[in-house]
Design brief:
single chain, six-stranded mixed β-barrel, 13 helices, about 20% strand, elongated
């Protein structure tokens, strides 16, 4: 017991002396060198947090767009093998009076063929100017409140609830606007010579023939979410009149609620539906699996780049401490000669390394949360498939700070240990 108490006292004395020596060396060190080391630590921290955060932000941006422009926080679609959501009307009534739901958009949908050239027949061996796609019937007012739909009508204008005979077409379906038009993908057709003001013909297959109607293109919808940019949109009341069956049953219901409450709301809807069949998912559950795979890949890539940054930082601290200890080897020998414990000397260099790590991390945190994250939130990076944002949380940043400090401590302790353990007399004489 006595030995344990004595050992604790030695550690406390070594900590106090090491702290005193570290402060003295930091105060008397070259200010330019200190600033350069801290700058390197800032860059290392930003590499740890910002680079991986931007890589994840590429995918997280697409998740956020998917939720905001299409699915809401909860999306209801037909069960597997069904063409519509069973008991749709009763479900809509339940949702409209649910206290946790802020907005919802109920959509009709049907697979159609869209003909872009009404006057000219195709020449021999020439494909007709026709594409297949999904035609959605929407209430423009509900859709605007739920997904801010008009934001994605890039050319022309949005549907008017009081005007019939108009259609919106997704940009991906049109050769003039599609980003894939030059790719020459086999089996991927586009409408040619179709723009705002053009007349097109929608054909709906039916058991007793076909149902066709002409529409005027009122606008072009362009979004980085496929469920928006690859579809066509008309007024819901107009599409209902064209549907051969199930006119009162919906194919999609997008629901806006608090993001954190989405799982509980989905469970409540499942309880209401009972034996009626429908697919009820939160936006996170509805995200396509390939995007989840990309998110995992980006996370691995971000961690790999962060590891390289950590190695660079540890080598930098190692070299700085090692050179500092070598140049003061004589001074270290004198301190050991007058009775200062080697542990105290080693701790002094560890404290210096911690100072550099903490200073760089603190400034890096201020830059990340005070400047970079707000900037990328207001000005997302424009990528073809998403608007990239910076994904970083205080928890994830704190973990990286802890890792950086741990690596810094090791990088400061090892060279100090190598120099301090040399023979005291040799150190004093410079041998």
């Amino acid at each position: 017991m006595k030995k344990i108490i004595e050992r604790k006292r030695e550690w406390l004395r070594a900590l106090r002396v090491g702290w005193f020596l570290a402060l003295r060396q930091i105060k008397r060190s070259n200010k330019g060198t200190t600033a350069l080391i801290i700058f390197i630590m800032i860059l290392t921290f930003l590499n740890l947090v910002v680079v991986s955060g931007l890589l994840l932000g590429l995918i997280s941006g697409s998740f956020e767009q998917y939720r905001k422009s299409y699915s809401g926080e909860v999306i209801i679609t037909p069960a597997q093998g069904r063409d519509y959501i069973e008991n749709s009307q009763a479900l809509i009534t339940f949702l409209e009076y649910h206290p946790q739901i802020t907005n919802l958009s109920a959509r009709h949908g049907v697979n159609v063929q869209l003909l872009g050239t009404l006057n000219d027949n195709p020449k021999k061996n020439e494909r007709p100017n026709r594409v297949s796609g999904r035609l959605m019937g929407i209430d423009p007012i509900q859709e605007e409140a739920t997904t801010n739909f008009s934001k994605y009508v890039k050319y022309g204008s949005n549907l008017n609830p009081n005007e019939e005979g108009y259609i919106l077409i997704g940009a991906t379906l049109l050769k003039k606007y599609s980003t894939y038009a030059d790719a020459n993908i086999p089996g991927f057709d586009f409408l040619d010579n179709v723009d705002v003001g053009s007349r097109v013909r929608v054909t709906i297959p039916a058991s007793d023939g076909e149902i066709a109607k002409d529409f005027i293109v009122k606008g072009i919808v362009k979004s980085k979410v496929d469920e928006v940019s690859t579809r066509m949109f008309v007024l819901d009341k107009e599409l209902k009149r064209l549907l051969p069956v199930n006119k009162e049953q919906y194919q999609e219901i997008a629901i806006r609620t608090d993001y954190a409450n989405a799982p509980a709301l989905a469970s409540a809807i499942k309880g209401f539906m009972g034996s009626y069949a429908a697919r009820i998912q939160t936006s996170d559950e509805a995200i396509p699996s390939f995007l989840r795979d990309i998110e995992t890949t980006m996370g691995v890539l971000g961690n790999a780049l962060s590891s390289i940054a950590l190695i660079v930082a540890s080598i930098t601290i190692f070299i700085v401490v090692f050179i500092n200890a070598i140049t003061k080897r004589k001074f270290i020998g004198i301190m050991k000669g007058i009775g200062i414990k080697p542990l105290a000397v080693e701790l002094s260099y560890v404290f210096q390394a911690i100072f550099y790590g903490l200073a760089g991390s603190a400034i890096g945190l201020l830059l990340t949360f005070g400047m970079l994250k707000p900037y990328f939130s207001a000005n997302p990076i424009d990528f073809p498939f998403s608007d990239g944002i910076l994904v970083v949380t205080p928890w994830s940043a704190g973990i990286r700070v802890a890792i950086l400090i741990l690596v810094t401590i090791l990088a400061g302790f090892i060279p100090a240990k190598i120099i301090v353990r040399k023979n005291t007399l040799d150190s004093i004489l410079g041998r």
